[in-house]
Amino acid sequence: MSASRSLVKLFTRNPGLAHTALTRLPPAWHHLDSCIAGRTSVARIMATPVGRATAALTARLPCR
Q1: CA distance 7 to 64
Q2: pTM, whole model, 2 decimals?
Q3: 18: which residues sit within 8 A by CB, 6+ positions away?
Q4: DSSP the chain
Q5: How many C-beta atoms surround the C-beta of residue 20 within 10 A?
Q6: Share of the chain above pLDDT 90, in %
Q7: Crossing angle for the helix pair 2-13 and 49-60, nearest 10 degrees?
Q8: What is the pLDDT of residue 31?
Q9: Mean pLDDT of 36-60
Q10: Sign of the CA dihedral 23, 15, 53, 3?
């Protein structure tokens, strides 16, 4: 649940940044695609370097 909460925070606080990251960073898009296809979970994604960086970034960003 905490992994999903971190990801939702990023999307709700900075939707433009989330969209840019997903469309311009192939690793981010690959992780999202794998989750949607059922090949991985949000918890597994958040345990990767990309996921950990996302969580760290989310904690530092102001709301928009």
Answers
A1: 15
A2: 0.65
A3: 10, 11
A4: -HHHHHHHHHHHH-HHHHHHHHHH-HHHHHHHHHHHTTSS-HHHHHTSHHHHHHHHHHHHPPP-
A5: 12
A6: 11
A7: 60
A8: 85
A9: 84
A10: negative
